[in-house]
């Protein structure tokens, strides 16, 4: 279940692949201290969500907890949706489904699809750019020659993801990460996003400099492919910005919440 607290705009934080709501614990603390209403959601088969990987058969299953949570909010709620990395896909479909309550969406070193092409095109470009040595000790399953699921290895976490974070955060990740699906087939469908719904909502992109997982070149490609209303760069953030510089990103999220109606 999401963890929640109080105020006018409601910030909803969504984790990336193999992670869970737990990775937002520092940002949750900063935002709560500032008086914001904030929730972090575990997607299907992630964090403390009870389903196992083999029980999450589709992207719809994966994002169902987010949809269920947003559906539970009142019609006059104003939500700031925040998605990290792979969660850019989850919040995009949430924007399409709940445009009436989403004030603005923040994509943090994330996929940010356009409404003209299937989201899989950005995903395919990402995998095309990866060199085999970058996978390190991650474990993958494949379907029809494409990656189907991933389990992140300890060396990968330490070298690629958490190199800018405290040792305690790396230790936490090693105990809590779970394998996840990519859902490339689901993301290849046409008309998942439309200009009238997804395209009507303001989007902000956060560039994480020093990110070894989603490098800056790919982040700039995403921005060019699907131009947002605003771009903000954070030097030295690395991939896990919510853990490496939590105060900085928390202050920026407060600024976004204040500036977008």
Order of helices and strands: EHEHEHEHEEHHEEHEHH
Mean pLDDT: 95
* Strands side by side in the biggest sheet: 2-1-3-4-8-9
Show unreliable segments: 3-7
Beta strand %: 15-25%
Radius of gyration of CA atoms, rounded to a whole number: 17 Å
Number of helices: 9
Largest sheet: 6 strands, parallel
SS elements, strand count:
9
Query: How many angstroms does the end-to-end distance come to?
Result: 27 Å
Instruction: Give the class from helix and strand content and strand pairing.
Output: alpha/beta
Shape: globular
Question: Care to describe what's here?
Answer:
The protein is α/β, with parallel strands linked by helices and 261 residues long. It is built from nine helices and nine strands. The protein has helices at 25-33, 59-71, 87-97, 120-129, 154-161, 167-176, 216-225, 241-244, 246-259, and strands spanning 10-14, 37-41, 79-84, 102-108, 139-143, 146-151, 180-181, 202-208, 230-234. The chain has a six-stranded parallel sheet, sandwiched between helices. Strands 5-6-7 form a three-stranded antiparallel sheet, with no helix packed on it. Helix 1 links the parallel strand 1 and strand 2. The longest helix has 14 residues, at 246-259. The model is unreliable at 3-7 (pLDDT under 50).
Give a short summary of the structure:
34% of the residues lie in helices and 18% in strands. With 261 residues, it is an alpha/beta fold.
Labels describing this entry:
alpha/beta, globular, 261 residues, 3-stranded antiparallel sheet, 9 helices, 6-stranded parallel sheet
